[in-house]
Amino acid sequence: MGNTINMSTGYASSEAIVVKGTSGALVTQNTIVGVAGAEPIQIRESADKTMLMGNIIEAGRTCTDGCAILTYLSPSNTFLVGNVVNGSSVGINLTGSSSTYALDNLLRVTQQKYVSDGTSTNYLIRDSNDYMTGGVGGVVVGSGTKITRHLSNTATWDLPSVNDGSYTSTTLTVTNAAVGDTVLTGFSNAIPAGARLTGAVTSSNTVTVTLYNKSGSAFNLASGTLRADVWQH
Do 175 and 131 fall into the same domain? Predict the structure, then answer.
């Protein structure tokens, strides 16, 4: 409690704090600076009912090998509340945890706030306006259907003139997209009323986007940015 740890000065280990084999531990108000490796705070096997609260991790050289906080090897009923992470690539890794509650953490990261390898069960995340619950391999927003992955990509699209009753289409790469996935599309320029923009995964990693013109007259949109969002369940 209340320690300051500088990992850039003679600190051989990549972990500053490890909780393992004990139940009901409280780790609070510690400041960890100079982080260069992975997982400066680890909550590991048999560390059930651990509360990690109000800690600050300053990853000035970025945790390029992993994350700032790791729950690993099936700890259960872990509470991560009000922690601050600055500069890490990933904030909190929930791999292997059960019944983890992450509430009001401030994660200023370069890649993802939260990750899991699909083995986490029954977790709840509430940060600012984000609210997610999840089980193995996905998240549930509210009480809806589990989402296992969201993919997205953009491409420049310079459309030709499209006559009324006709259509034009293009493709863009969305890595890991599979046939049957749900696709939503958007375009940076306004599409006339009566026209319809649709997308579908037509082969692995490829989304085909089609613009149908039912507006009543021909149009020629200026070049713009096309986006395809792919959702997997």
Answer: no
Structure tokens at 173: 């790469």
The strand pair at 106-108 and 130-135 is best described as unpaired
Q: Do 105 and 157 sit in the same domain of this protein? A: no
CB contact at 8 A, 14 and 70: no
Q: What's the pLDDT tens digit per position in 69-99?
A: 887 767 788 888 888 888 777 788 877 777 7
Task: Give yes or no for a contact between 229 and 184, defined as CB atoms under 8 angstroms apart.
Answer: yes
Give residue for tokens 């531990």. 25
- SS in 3 state form for 177-227? CCCCCEEEEEECCCCCCCEEEEEEEEECCEEEEEEEECCCCCECCCCEEEE
| Final residue of a structural domain among 102, 117, 140 | 140
| Alpha carbons 117 and 233: distance in angstroms, whole number | 15
Is residue 181 over pLDDT 90?
Answer: yes
Contact 186, 154 (CB under 8 A): no
Looking at the fold, whether 9 and 87 belong to one and the same domain comes out as yes
Q: How far is 87 from 31, CA to CA, in rounded Å?
A: 14
Residues 91 and 154 in one domain: no
127 shares a domain with 50: yes
* pTM recorded for the entire structure: 0.55
Number of independent structural domains in the chain:
2
Strand ranges across the sheet with 167-173: 167-173, 206-213, 195-203
Q: Which domain holds residue 43?
A: 4-140
Same domain for 136 and 153, yes or no, is: no
